[in-house]
Amino acid sequence: MLEGILRDSITKPAVKALRKDGYLIANIYGKGLENISAAFKRNEYIKYLKNKTTLAFDVKVDGKVLSVVVKEYQKDAITSELLHVDLMVAQKGVRASYFIPVAVTGSAKGLKNKGLLMLHTRRIPVKCTIENLPNNITLDVTNLDTGDNILLRDITLPADVDCYLDPRVPIVGVIKAK
Questions:
Q1: What's domain 2-91's superfamily in CATH?
Q2: Could you state, in order of their start, the residue ranges of all structural domains in the chain?
Q3: Phi and psi dihedrals of 52, rounded to 5?
Q4: pLDDT digits (tens, 9 = 90+) for 146-162
Q5: DSSP one-letter string for 69-105
Q6: Quick one: fold of 97-176?
Q7: Which of 15, 86, 107, 144 could be bridged to 148 by S-S, CB 3.0 to 4.6 A?
Q8: Measured CA distances, 83 to 22, 37, 75, 123, 167 (Å)
């Protein structure tokens, strides 16, 4: 479980001091809950997120254990260092917006015909409860030839999971190399 500290001050000098000490600034929020200003050790946070297997994970802040989902993060434009993260509390029975990652399996036929595999959409926005949230959407691309795409309408989402994107949006495809 990832453990963090409660930030008592949200002023700019306090945030700079925490970042200098190796902390990642975080905001934790949820529907009907009071916002929590927290900080996590940056290296522990990155290591923990690389090894997690589900979208929702547990954090412990100020003695409270919360199940959260990464909603948004900010990186430094030059160094790509993680600066800030927004975590949303995954409440049971509450419909919320999530981003499901897309995973690709197989080797496309079009790659032998000098094509390039393009992942157009890395994450699909959906609205559902945390109980129905899939960890990822796996697509088999072995039958894709040059010029073929898998569109959003070709994917079957689990029950009670709604996607509000246009069904004609391409998710993955093989394009002709120049």
A1: Ribosomal Protein L25; Chain P (2.40.240.10)
A2: 2-91, 97-176
A3: -75, 150
A4: 888 999 999 988 888 99
A5: EEEEEEE-TTT--EEEEEEEE--TT--EEEEEEEEEE
A6: RNA Polymerase Alpha Subunit; Chain A, domain 2 (2.170.120)
A7: 144
A8: 10, 14, 5, 21, 35
